[in-house]
Amino acid sequence: MRKLILVFIAVLLPLGVVAGPASYFDVPDTAYASNVVIDIIEHNGGVWFATGNGVNFSYDEGLNWLLYDSKNGLISDDVSAMLSLNGRFWVATNHEEPLPGGGGYYTFSDGCSYTDDGGNTWNRIDFGSSGLDIPWVWGADRTIYDMTGMRDRQGRDWVFFTAFAGGFLVSQDGGISWRRIFAAPRDSLNFERTRAGQDTLYWSNRQFSCVADTSHGDSVFVWSGSAAGVHQRIFAVPARKLYSDRINNAALCSGCSAGSTTMFLAGDRGVTKGKITGGPFITRFESDGLPGSYTTAVYQFGGRLFAGTADSAAGASTGLAYSDDLGDSFIADTLSAVVGTGRQILDFAVMRDRLYMAAEEAGLFVSLDTGKTWQHIFVDSADTTPADRRNVVRALDVLADTLRAGGDSGLVTLYLSPTGSIDSSMFHVFPENLSSGGRVIRVRTQRYGYNPADSTYDSLAVWTCNRPQASGTSMVGRSRNGATWINLQPSAVMYDVGFIGDSAFVVGEDGIRFTRTGQNPTLTLQVTDSTTAVRFDLDTVLSMMVFGDTVIFTSKHGLAISPTRAQNFKVFRGNLDSLGADVVVNYTQINTINPDSGGFFTYGLTGNFVPALAMQYRNDGSSWLWASGRPTGSSGEITGMSVARYVVARDTLGDSIGMKLRWDAVNEQEFAWNFAFNGDTAFAATNSGLLMYNDTGVTIAWDTIPFVDSTGRVLVSPDQAVYAVRVVDNTIWVGTDNGTVAIAVNDFTNQRVYGVVDSSDETYAYPVPISIKQGQRAGFHFVVNSPTGADVTIEIYDFAMNLVKRVFENRFYPQGTYQGFYSGVPEWDGRNGRDQAVAVGVYYFKVLYSSGETRWGKLAVIP
After folding, report:
1. Long-range contacts of 848-856, Cβ-Cβ distance < 8 Å, separation of 24 or more
2. d(CA 514, CA 500)
3. Any residues with CB less than 8 A from the CB of 402 and at least 6 apart, and which?
4. How many helical (H) and strand (E) elements, i.e. helices and strands, does the chain have?
5. pTM: predicted TM-score of the whole model, two decimal places
6. pLDDT, tens digit, 9 for 90 and up, residues 212-270
């Protein structure tokens, strides 16, 4: 069996490794696999390396190394990404296949696998048609470059990965189910068009890096780096967002919060609270005290929020609830009369200090003490039997001391005394025919012809929304005196009426219609989100509310808010898809520029190609996002590294107006393959070595950490690229292009290096080449086969076979294998016998044994 040699340097004991001869390990179980490590993570108390020859890991800080590869669990040897999440180890692998016709190889992604038992068993995710049927995860051009994840407060394990040309995928159940998610709808369309050969892949689908941010409480924050910048995705828990599809109506409270009117929404899954401008939203459910999941109506009065609930849109009423803490929690009312089939609470109205409630067949109720007690009122006291449909109340409207109640027998107008008793009443029954329906589900009073001189109105009109009882039709009714009615919009199913100035609006299944003259509302209002262009009015609109200049429409699929009297709108949709991000923000080089007062600017994100992202949780409790940027070809992009952090946002007067995410370039020369952190200290793995970030508060500087031990020995040449870095306990692990270095965090001269050399050749130098200017030395690997040992001499010759220097002469070595100074073998420092630096070029070395045996090897010297 072929063997690999593990080479390490141990300089100081605190790192837990004692210097000694090289250790030999057999493949595949115990071996150090590769000199090139592209990723490093901590898992189950050990350090794990991603290499092209498998996954290397050690549980004893490098004393012993174990290996998983294609011979003992992995699909393939080439590891491109790893993740440790709550005891589960994830790995993404790839393999090569020849190009059609020869001339090279494709890199084929194998998807990802995981193990829950340290590698004894492996589970491969089947993305194919026989499994999850998610295309473009396996195959060419789909390497999984990065993985991240977190456990949310509901105990769900979220796993994300970025696949080149395969997009951004997520699972919230620990890998049982997966879905590709997009930053914007156009990315999804473009992705499919690309696969059909119709389009060029949109750069947002070229995904390279990702990181989860665990510092935001209940919500899941994840960042991904693409060829189109950085995408921030926020997945809010239901309680922290608009978590209803259908919004039945809205209620407002202008004195409930400082600086903004509070908005309450009756949704099909609970009650949502927000601002009159929209979010942020919170939603409360049955678990928060509501007696039912479906909210039929909400109303705010006297510092108390009321909510009627049911088990479904057409189901039985589950009763009344109230909240005394602005909708944060609810208490179920004991009013049993409004519980049951046909007793949904549909409307509220206030007259003076009295609160009225309409509850279908349960009738009309009034409370004189802000809902502490309720009294049933018969609209028609002459007949209190269920047969009298006048006492079925579905809609309410108040003007002065007039209370209008809509129900199954049309419209009842009650004229009340100052104490609330009924002085008189007027009934209007709508006929059932081809242009009229007898059931009134909404009633509203319009006042128009405003006279600013005395703040009065010239006229009023009563509007109703009607449904058929039997043979009639849906329609809109309008009357100037309550007795004579005109029927408008026959057959149109309308749900509410509202008014802006003298214009009247009716909303329903056909969207939003209006009239400026009080005639048939045939004009249509188009409602489109001013930012996203999402169309709202094509939906079934359920309610309308006007508050000053603000207009609110609710519908079966969200709400639209206009702060400018229906001139422009913002549309809000409830997100019931737990795998659909609630917020997606795309940060690019151009939209993160920081202008200064002198007309100049500083970079935010340096380039839109983002190969690395990482979160730093700092000692002051703040979180910084680190991003590596490279140009994609667009004007203005540069190579560099950036930091994004939340800072105080200020207006033109310097007053605080909240927090904003600010991006700042902290390096405009190097990009990073990886980042790592030790408290407030940041490390970057770059092509120019391992860099350490030093922010004094006045200047920003980067220090290069040389790979040199306390004796001055160069362990890895400084011109070697660094691909991976990770701080594990008290050690900084650094994966370079030629060996892995372990550095003590409290003493950067306390270093050791791990590397692999091929033992099939028993005589060779290491490393090759060496740089004299960088202080490198060549160590020699040789084998003494004689059981009694041998005296050994090593000499250096130039290309013309002239003796350059005798490194050592006739040193006795027992039988065994020797590897450079690790075995006490002197090294060559690149100088001749006169202590002069030799010229750049190829040199040979000769190993002479006292037994007469001679072996040769070759090395090279570079500047």
Report:
1. 848/792, 848/793, 848/794, 848/795, 849/784, 849/786, 849/790, 849/791, 849/792, 850/790, 850/791, 850/792, 850/810, 851/786, 851/790, 855/762, 855/763, 855/782, 856/763
2. 10
3. 413, 414, 415, 416
4. 1, 70
5. 0.80
6. 998 887 889 999 999 999 999 999 999 999 999 999 999 998 777 766 799 999 999 99
